[in-house]
Amino acid sequence: MVVDDEDAVGELMGFILRRAGYDASVVHDGKAGLALCDTAQPDLVITDIVMPDMEGIEFLRRLRQTRAGTPAIAMSGHPVGASFLEAARLLGAREVLQKPISEATLLSAVRTVLTDAGGVPPEVGMAD
């Protein structure tokens, strides 16, 4: 699942992940992300840090309360958000990425986190 308040960024990441063989859902705020986690139980959450309504740090904190085992990747392209990436790591983000993120970097981080969490990444798109 991708959580990003910038529609174009979230949809592009979802497209990249689906093209690589992942089943990716995209939501545009932390509240929708938490609601989807309750029903869809994602294998991985990728969240932006700087978002209106619910910051990524708060989203990760709440995610840890309800689904502690769900691996997460935190990302930010905002200068203020970069200072929060280490806090995201303390809240369980297994990778932190600075936007803009290349397709290869995104897919590498997803594969690494899923493999470390015991998941098996799809074979499609592995040769990038």
- The pLDDT mean sits at 89
What is Rg? 13 Å
Structural class: alpha/beta
Could you state the oligomeric state of the chains shown? single chain
For the largest beta-sheet, the strand count, sense and barrel status come to:
5 strands, parallel
How many β-strand stretches? 5
Envelope shape = globular
Question: End-to-end distance, in Å?
Answer: 21 Å
* Contiguous helical run count: 6
Question: Helical percent range?
Answer: 40-55%
Low-confidence stretches: 124-128
- Numbering strands along the chain, what is their spatial order in the largest sheet? 2-1-3-4-5
Indicate the proportion of strand residues: 5-15%
SSE order, as H and E?
A: EHEHEHEHHEH
How are the elements arranged and paired?
Layout: E1 2-3, H1 7-19, E2 26-27, H2 30-40, E3 45-48, H3 56-66, E4 72-76, H4 79-82, H5 85-90, E5 93-98, H6 103-116
Parallel strand pairs: 1-2, 1-3, 3-4, 4-5
Helix pairs in contact: 2-3
